[in-house]
Amino acid sequence: MKKKQTLSIGEILPQVIKESFDKEVKEQLELPSVIKAWKELLGETICQYTTDYTFTNGVFYVKITSSILRHDLFLQRSSLLQKLNQTMGNNIVKSIILR
């Protein structure tokens, strides 16, 4: 049985920090394009009721100020997710959370 190469924390830590930082920065850079696609998809009238957009770990969080609209969009969540990714041209968004 071969002995696996062991690495010290000092060797691993910079790589882990870089990968984590890169992911966070990448998501923050993608947030404007996700918001733009969301607004194109829903239109100006509905977007008047949406605020506080966040994109973390593939999850797009949107605050909806109208409870009736939030419920309606909740029922269409899977369809919205598919159309959102299609509008963006890739599958960045894994889930939509409406608050």
Write a brief caption for the model.
This protein is α+β, with helices and mostly antiparallel strands and 99 residues long.
Write the layout of secondary structure elements.
Blueprint: H1 9-42, H2 44-47, E1 50-56, E2 59-64, H3 67-75, H4 77-88, E3 95-98
Parallel strand pairs: 2-3
Antiparallel strand pairs: 1-2
Helix pairs in contact: 1-4
What do these coordinates show?
- It is a single chain.
- This protein is an alpha+beta fold and 99 residues long.
- The protein has a single domain, classed as GMP Synthetase, Chain A, domain 3 (2-Layer Sandwich), CATH 3.30.300.
- The chain is built from 4 helices and 3 strands; from the N terminus they run ααββααβ.
- It has helices at residues 9-42, 44-47, 67-75, 77-88, and strands spanning 50-56, 59-64, 95-98.
- The protein has a 3-stranded mixed sheet with strand order 1-2-3.
- Strand 1 (50-56) and strand 2 form a beta hairpin.
- The longest helix is centred in the N-terminal third of the chain and has 34 residues, at 9-42.
- The mean pLDDT is 88.
